[in-house]
Amino acid sequence: MRFLIAGLGSIGRRHLRNLLALGERDIVLYRTHQSTLPDDELAEFPTETDLQRALTHYRPDAVIVANPTSHHLDVALPAARAGCHLLLEKPIAHTLNGLETFRQTVAENHVRVLVGFQFRFHPTLNAVRRWLHQGLIGTPWFVRAHWGEYLPDWHPWEDYRQSYAARADLGGGVVRTLCHPLDYLRYLLGEAQVIWAHTGNLSTLELQGVEDFAEIGLRFSGGAEASIHLDYFQRPPQHWLEIEGAAGTIRWEYASGQAVALAPDHSLLASAALPPSWERNAMFLDEMRHFLAVVRGESQPRCTLEDGIRALSLALNALSAR
Prior knowledge:
Elements: E1 3-6, H1 10-21, E2 27-30, E3 47-48, H2 51-58, E4 62-65, H3 72-81, E5 85-89, H4 99-108, E6 113-116, H5 123-134, E7 140-150, H6 174-177, H7 180-189, E8 192-200, E9 213-220, E10 225-231, E11 233-245, E12 248-253, E13 259-262, E14 268-272, H8 281-295, H9 305-320
Parallel strand pairs: 1-2, 1-4, 2-3, 4-5, 5-6, 7-10
Antiparallel strand pairs: 7-11, 8-9, 9-10, 11-12, 12-13, 13-14
């Protein structure tokens, strides 16, 4: 198969390395040369700066869309018209504008789309999902999700103020950039709607027209409610999840990878730990392995275009509720 990678920042390069690790070598790069990373690892691959030429000359089977959020559809729509299958990074866009045309184009050209919410490939988060489906803690009633990280630590090689995460024109802000809980809570608990939200700026970070924290309230179709906290300034970082149910509580922590389900008397109902030597890239590697199966027609996308649209809609509703 031939792959075109659009965007060669940190996530685009991660996808490139993972394709190589899985034995794929027929790779073309589409870039605007805005990346702040060195170009050494890219030298061996054909490079195009014109998207239409990249699509018509190289005729890729699949396109990986890893450029800044506000430019995703600039690549994804022409690629879908060319019949290319898509790994589309999250969030799929910065607004809902153009998504109906994109959805129709995908359907008309029989394009398979996988949205890049890699937490759907996290082993212990999937254990939590199994426990919920098994009814281990009874009916879920309330959920708390917390994710705080210090933005300047993300990409130490660049000025965070110029990164997509810090700029409104590139589709940044903490709600869009850290929207993973909006997806994985749907993955765990079903459909949701925003019932309240508050976003704004508390830190001294120099951001360009975007928020640095958010508190978001969700209500799920099954009746549970959730409170989500996101921020760009917590040090040391924390990312955790707690689900309170009628017959117990589930706790998951990203740093340790541990998940436990506790009965009302504190006894252990179940526990899950990460495989030995597991590290963060394993999620992305499993995601890419799954994408190869999707492109070959061997598997249905674990995170569909509709999932991506729902997560973006929740993010935008949270921003408009501020």
